[in-house]
Design goal:
The structure holds two protein chains of two kinds. By secondary structure, chain A is an alpha+beta fold. Chain A contains six helices and eight strands. Chain B has four domains: 146 residues, PH-domain like; 84 residues, no CATH class; 57 residues; 199 residues, no CATH class. Chain B is globular. Chain B contains 16 helices and 21 strands. Classes of the chains: A alpha+beta, B alpha+beta. Strand 5 of chain A pairs antiparallel with strand 19 of chain B. Chain A: Pfam families: bPH_2.
């Protein structure tokens, strides 16, 4: 159950939490960058993961509910249109969409298991996908913003999505289905890491 | 970099106080349009006005004594209407009121539009009723553009446009005195570079010099009576003529060996051999066919298209007139233009990706074009963006090498051996990791060209056959790196590598590499990027000079 302060979902939190400057004016770092060869790179890397970490298996429910609703509406519309106007292709399209959705739902647990992340000394590596695999490395210093978003189903399950924004739109890294407290801990940790490794744009 | 012995002190416009814009700016920003509209209306009414005035002040001179008959049509003949109804006084009063209001409005807008340069930021306050206060942090400046449209040049004025990271985050000062704009650009870049302000004494000297210059530039010779008026007018005209005839790039600004220029014949020939020319040929063929077959409706579709293509070609050619790119102390300066001139300065450490590309028809001549990704200049002002990201419209491989040397000076030594292999080469030459033969299944023509190398803090990506491409990404400014594979690539044991940078015309990608090679490149790039970002000091390039 959602606690009240997070009931307002889509809470986006700028990296520089507590500083009034909005992100459109650039990250507010009064000091230009850490000193060359500074202490940032040699501190004890307490945050480093030894292996890939997975997201919560409960996230499968979120994905399944999402595809059931989406596919259900599409199939219903196509079937209704097909039967009312006697358009055979609409009926077949509806059946095809339904079958594809079922296969996709059947693969959902596997797909959610493929989502993983790993915090390394200086960057976060993210991977996902079984058919279309993708692996992205984002240096901590490049994170401009860490967003926590929660949909209704995620909220009911106590999950949250963590979204990383860099200056490149194509980075597109979203870590879905983290337990809320883990998401918040991870966010705070990444924000702190981003602050210590902040470089110019 | 060599250090010039003396730099002029920070100019008076960057002294931290509030300043106003060039006094002619209201005229240039909208007053001219107002005057033109007024003139147009008066010109249209002139005959009637003259006629009416003759009647009014000298009755009986030409047509004896009859009041002009008014047909009652105000839209057709307002002047007669006014006279016939005895409203001349009111009409003149209304006209005067409108003019006074407009002039007052422009004057107030000019009075209220002020800017100042502090150690941290450029701040601009403007607006009469709705005040706005913009502030651009100096260390976030991504580029400074100085534009001089023809009209502004007549007044000796220039427009300064400071782009900061973030879409539509530009701060523009239009207009400033021409010399002041150049001075202010230098000062802004210098403050951004981390150099401290000089002593006040030095500033005062500069003050006097530029103030005198500004005087001559600002005040039009309208002062009554004094015998020096003619001299001053002559001096002002002389200055304007000098400014018009002066080379677009001030020779003192950059060492001549760092300057790349673009000969006019090459600009024209390259435009004629460009991709748009093929469209033009196709369109003309369609027009001819439709003329001969008599299908006239096609003309209405394709003649506008032809006009569009021709005007694009024309703007491409005129845009590269008097083109020059030069390495100055405070960044790479790219300038061009014959009547309306514009130049852009990209400070060091602001280039996120460089691409040299060459398409099929240019290959015989060895011509290349160079583009860059720069933060904050890409999505806003779509028309301008294409021009601003185009660093070298057309040049030889040698020009490309020099331009890359200007844009990425630190990495150049490591890159030189890679550039030749990267521009035209194929296969695993000179340190490139190239794609295996089976990549031909997905890239049948270009698979030999596909390759990647990481050297000197720069990722070098080579690809393309029809359009040869060489992309350089300074890893210190990389945002993230990704490897990806869909079912086809996985079946072939291939992966693509993509480097994410700020938005721009370049999307650095290696379409196919062996799985192991891709993973190795991914690891190497990720590690190198972190390391380079930590040690990159180019965004405060002035600090090392000072110490």
């Amino acid at each position: 159950m959602p606690d009240p302060e997070h009931a307002a979902s889509d809470a986006s939190l700028p990296v520089a939490a507590g500083q009034p400057t909005p992100e459109t004016t650039g990250p507010p770092s009064p000091s230009p960058a850490p000193a060359p060869g500074g202490a940032a790179s040699v501190d004890a890397p307490a945050h480093v993961d030894d292996d890939w970490r997975r997201v919560s298996p409960k996230h499968v429910v979120v994905e399944v509910v999402g595809s059931v609703i989406g596919a259900g509406i599409t199939v219903a519309v196509l079937l209704v249109v097909g039967s009312w106007f006697e358009l055979w292709w609409a009926t077949w399209a509806g059946i095809a969409v339904g079958v594809i959705a079922l296969v996709s739902i059947a693969l959902e647990p596997r797909r959610v298991r493929s989502i993983g992340y790993r915090r390394r000394a200086d960057d976060l590596v993210f991977r996902r996908g079984i058919m279309f695999q993708r692996q992205v490395a984002v240096p901590y210093g490049r994170m401009q913003l860490v967003d926590i978003t929660r949909g209704p189903v995620s909220r009911a399950l106590g999950l949250a999505d963590l979204k990383f924004v860099t200056a490149a739109a194509s980075t597109a890294v979203t870590l879905p289905g983290l337990p809320l407290e883990e998401a918040e801990r991870l966010r705070d940790e990444l924000v702190a890491l981003a602050e210590t490794r902040r470089a110019g744009l | 970099m060599t250090e010039p012995a003396v730099r002029a002190p920070i100019g008076p416009l960057a002294d931290g106080e509030w300043h106003r814009l060039h006094p002619a700016s209201p005229l240039l920003r909208g007053g001219l349009v107002f005057l033109a509209v007024l003139g147009f209306v008066l010109a249209n009414l002139r005959e009637r006005v003259v006629e009416v005035f003759v009647l009014f002040f000298a009755p009986g001179a030409e047509s004896p004594g009859e009041t002009p008959e008014f047909g009652g049509d105000w839209a057709e003949d307002p002047v007669t209407g006014i006279v016939a109804n005895g409203l001349v006084g009111w009409a003149l009063l209304a006209l005067a009121a409108v003019i006074v209001l407009v002039v007052l409005g422009f004057w107030f807008a000019w009075r209220m539009h002020t800017f100042r340069v502090t150690d941290e930021a450029l701040e601009v306050r403007s607006g009469i009723l709705f005040r706005s206060h913009r502030s651009a942090r100096l260390d976030r400046i991504q580029g400074i553009n100085v534009a001089r449209p023809v009209f502004a040049r007549l007044f000796g004025a220039a427009k300064l446009d400071v782009s900061v990271a973030g879409q539509s985050g530009n701060v523009d000062l239009s207009y400033l005195g021409s010399a002041q704009a150049d001075r202010l650009r230098g000062d802004l870049l210098r403050l951004a570079s981390g150099t401290r302000r000089q002593e006040a004494v030095a500033t005062a000297v500069g003050d006097a010099v530029v103030a005198a210059g500004a005087d001559a530039a600002g005040a039009l010779p309208l002062a009554p009576g004094a015998p020096s008026v003619v001299d001053r007018a002559g001096a002002v005209v002389g200055r304007r003529v000098d400014e018009f005839l002066a080379p677009e790039l001030d020779p003192d600004l950059a060492p001549p060996e760092s300057v790349v220029r673009l000969p006019l014949p090459r600009a024209i020939a390259s435009a004629l051999l460009g991709g748009s020319m093929i469209w033009l040929v196709v369109i003309i063929a369609i027009i001819v066919v439709s003329l001969t077959t008599g299908t006239l409706w096609m003309l209405f579709t394709f003649i506008p298209a032809a006009i569009g293509v021709v005007s694009y070609l024309w703007s491409r050619i005129t845009g590269s007139l008097r083109y020059s790119i030069a390495g100055t102390r405070d960044g790479v300066r790219i300038g061009s233009g014959l009547l309306s001139t514009a130049n852009q300065t990209i400070p060091p450490g602001r280039v996120h990706a460089i691409e040299a590309s060459q398409w099929l028809l240019w290959r015989a001549f060895g011509w290349w074009t160079v583009r860059v990704n720069v933060a904050g200049q890409s999505i806003s002002q779509a028309g301008d963006a294409a021009r601003r990201t185009l660093v070298l419209p057309v040049g030889t491989a040698d020009d490309v090498r020099r331009v890359i040397g200007l844009l990425a000076p630190d990495a150049l030594d490591d890159l030189v051996p890679l550039l030749d292999a990267g521009l035209a080469g194929t296969g695993p030459a000179a340190g490139f990791t190239s794609a295996p033969r089976r990549a031909a299944w997905i890239r049948p023509f270009s698979w030999r060209r596909i390759g990647i190398a990481v050297e000197g803090g720069t990722a070098v990506l080579r690809s393309g056959w029809l359009l040869r491409r060489l992309v350089l990404v300074p890893l210190a400014r990389m945002q993230s790196v990704a490897v990806a594979a869909g079912p086809v690539r996985r079946g072939l044991g291939l992966e693509s590598v993509r480097i994410h940078t700020v938005a721009g015309p370049i999307a650095p990608e290696v379409p196919a590499l062996d799985r192991a090679d891709a993973t190795a490149a991914f690891t190497a790039i990720a590690a190198e990027a972190v390391d380079r970002a930590l040690h990159d000091r180019t965004d405060r390039w002035g600090v090392e000079h000072a110490s």
